[in-house]
User: Fold this.
Amino acid sequence: MTIGDAQREVRVVFLGGFAGQLVTSLLWFVSAALATWRSPRVGMVFIVLGGFFIFPLTQLLLSAMGRRPALSRENPLGQLATQIAFTIPLSLPLVVVAAMHHAHWFYPALMIVVGAHYLPFCFLYGMWEFSLLCGALVGGGVLIGLYGRDPFSLGGWSAAVVLLVFAFIGRARALRDLPVGKGGAP
Assistant:
């Protein structure tokens, strides 16, 4: 399997990141809503704990869509995807320290961590669009961290919208790679 073939399989199986970003976006929306109407602490705990369920929920969504929820065993990029996924929980101590210093930095710091984790997706998926997602989340996190003090959940709402938009951008890109007449379910 060539690198191009491996990347194409990642794009097609995961629909350009559509299912994962849709699940992630929904978690950010719920977290922001909880932080807005319940308490910031509840919103923070929800997004941290909910983040551990993104991959299984993504696989469940792909299965519900009638799609294969995993890469073939021959695809060498599966290991890279796993390594990229672990960058977020390994970076959470930095988010916690930032929030301990200034509580309003929680969502901006998490936006920066999540955004940076999307940069290697450019290679994983073979899609330059992930560099825009990275830039939007990192840049948004920096700007909100520096200038956006209220509401507390501003970063949560912002990230949710950005992820939702990019879910559909990735889906549109991946649909161009589907073989004609395959019905969209490899």
